[in-house]
Specification:
By secondary structure, this protein is of the alpha+beta class. The chain contains eleven helices and 23 strands. A hairpin with a 7-residue loop joins β9 (about 90-95) and β10.
Length: about 475
Amino acid sequence: MSQFKPYPAYKDSGVEWLGEVPENWTVCKLNFRYSVELGKMLDEKRITNTSPLPYLRNQDVQWGKINTDDLPEMDIHPVEMERYTIRSGDLLVCEGGDVGRAAIWRSEDSALGYQKALHRLRHRYAHVDTAEFFYFVLLAAKLRGVFEESESKSTIAHLPAEKFRQYRFVFPPLPDQLTIAAYLNHETARIDALIEEQQRLIELLKEKRQAVISHAVTKGLDPTVPMKDSGVEWLGDVPSHWKIKRLKQLVIDAAGIQMGPFGGMLIDLEDSDTGYKVYGQENTISGNFSSGGRWISESRYLALSSYHLEVGDIVLTRKGSLGNCRRVSMLPQAGIIDSDTIRIRVQDRAINPEYLERTLHEAGYISTQLSLVKRGAILSGLNTEIIANLVIIAPPLEEQEELLQEINKASSKFDQGISDCEYAVELLQERRSALISAAVTGKIDLRGWQPPANTPAPLREQETA
């Protein structure tokens, strides 16, 4: 942004997040420049199917794009067409959910309605305002948390139309609006392409990391070692001196694979720290067993002691982030698992817990087994039977230690690459946000900007998700 100078003169906008704006820009209530209308409320009791029309919902409007596939229909009668339909150039803004999320409608093909969960913004004067500019204003406002004051912490977040109309925004002259919109379309597209490139690289590094680990835990480190048929079609050959076991053969006893307590067994949780915690998905996914705020009394802990957690245990998630697992290396407080997790406690000298953790978490042959269990259906959650019957390839303990050293060494290289890419994405996203904010608030003077030669700077077109 350093190549752009500020405007010659500024004035106080009177709006905190806008700060000072160029002297010739107008600051006023949204309602003075745009009509703001909520869509039609869906009333199933009044559906007649006499005037069916497809309509957009909140989830159909994402930043910069609008889904038009498989839309539902509602009755929008001829007298309601002007009020409850959209036309090219209208801005659709989410009233609830991700409040303020917006996209521009760009089509004259057919009539399309919109539900009450959306605001329709239509500029009052085409020779004064353009939706392409105001789209970026809304994006900047969202990034600055402008709409958060409209979100109630006790109810679903929403932005009432009357309140939205009273918000004060800044409006440059139309030529400035068009230039700013064209510049931001050009620059954000370029930044987004760089972000996508980094994200693809992250996925590639993750795939390579998994491939390295999968090869190590199924073939070993010595390419000359004799191999044998595993007897499992999708697994292939494994080193001849390795054992192939079911996980239930590697745990301490029948309670070695334990799902947390269900139903009313965990009611009446304590409000303050009793010294006895309930550990769940949030701890397993993050690996942080110090976080969380669920406690049980000492007497309840003793009654549920069969579900207790200890250092060395492996905990798997069974819902949501299916199959995430962590080995407990440190436990700040005594506690039990909840019903969304499964605890694995292995036999001494049967398998190294850290080796099993890496295998369960990243070995491809484990994810293959889970895929086969699904058999094309939706798996609602893992259970102890599925986990108990997982095929595990178990090298001798000495080799497990060697494999762990090599896996950890290789993983650290991939992890550093992933971390570098994630940092690059963070910097690009920060630049994108700063650029949008500076442009729409007039902190940089873009007048006279021209797109690079042979590089068109089209206004944001209608997309379908």
